[in-house]
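Molecular record:
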Amino acid sequence: DETEFRNFIVWLEDQKIRHYKIEDRGNLRNIHSEDWPKSFEKYMKDVNCPFKIQERQETVDWLLGLAVRLEYGDNADKYKDSTPDGAKNADNTAKNAEPLINLDVNNPDFKAGVMALANLLQIQRHDDYLVMLKERLTQDAIAKASQSKEGLPVALEKHILGFDTGDAVLNEAAQILRLLHIEELRELQTKINEAIVAVQAIIADPKTDHRLGKVGR
């Protein structure tokens, strides 16, 4: 917005840069004047801005940098011993990076979330929601999950979830969990099929014993 841009330049000069004396800022402050672009171009030359008047994004960035340098120069003692906010909050940042560390399993919202997720994923529920979680975190389950597997990448957008949680990230997580659940069911079906084949191999080739007068082993 042209008006906002001009007001921004005037604010920088009035509040931070202060290259002109107050009485010399009239042309720059007259933001509705047709001659304002010329005044702005002269201002850029006066502060030694290396960019052209048409390069507004670069000009704004450069003027902001100039304003920061001047602000620091005027208050060097104030800022030299300042600790960045990021450093002050380093511990909080580390904690936030591992949200499960401070997870309160007794929180009613957590319990409701576990039960709701179980319903959405159609996983068998248990009266004790912690038992339901423990069953998914047994040593065998952890060991199995730790085994590296190579496979083809899956395009989640091609798999219909069948419900909407109202949150895109939660929807994606639910899709992943459902696909993993389907994989486990397929592995179970494979083992069942293998057991059926093994039984059939035993009974499909009976031997005849004429002495006993019956067929079988």
User: Anything to note?
Assistant: The chain has three domains: 2-81, 104-146, 156-204. Residues 104-146 form one domain.
